[in-house]
Sequence to fold (228 residues):
Amino acid sequence: MLTLTLVPDGDDSGQLELQWGRNYWTTDFEFVTLPRRPTPERTSNVGRASSLTRDSDTSARYRAAMLGARNETALVTPDGAHIQVLFQKELGTDGDDYLALASTVADGGLVQLTRGAVIRLRTEVPLRFADTLLPTGNLAPDFPGAYGLWLKKAGMDWRLVFNNEPDSWGSQHDPAFDAAEIALSHVQDDSSDEQPLAVYLAPRDDGQIGIVIQWGDHVWAADFSVAQ
Fold:
């Protein structure tokens, strides 16, 4: 399986990772601010000037607006199905939300993102996490699955909650819309203590795919497969 991942490692830099089977390549990159495109000339006295035309791809415009505030990690299966995760940009380790991981997240409590939207998963195929099936069509029949992802403290362990409100703010969880919950592995890596929030989709050697959430020195992970 071929995957391409953009991994931010700071406010204006990151790493491009390309993996194909057991082959792995990386290179560093920097974010740049492009010059602003000039406003088109007005052709009518009605309404404001716009570069939107009859043939414009409005879904692409929505995607561009979404990626203005969020990063994306994505994977395409051998059958051409897309699995995508969106997560808020610039959620570093210097805010109250990150500090709450160690001090205020009680047993059964959820990690709050008061400065950003909830992590958003979109999948065109059903996914299986061990004995838990995550279907498509949870919001509308014959459409991709869309879920909000919430980190949940469970004693000394962690779990991942899939919620049917994928576009909620990161501090507005409604348990009435919870769809599924799975166990997560969790480690703390002192070498990455300033890592901003990031989510990766990592192909495994056994054909499974790992979803990895990293924030500061915390790393949560779970493996899944495409349900047949």
Q: What stands out?
A: The chain has two domains: 1-31, 65-226. The CA atoms of residues 41 and 47 lie 13 Å apart. The longest strand covers residues 178-188. Confidence is low (pLDDT under 50) at residues 52-57.
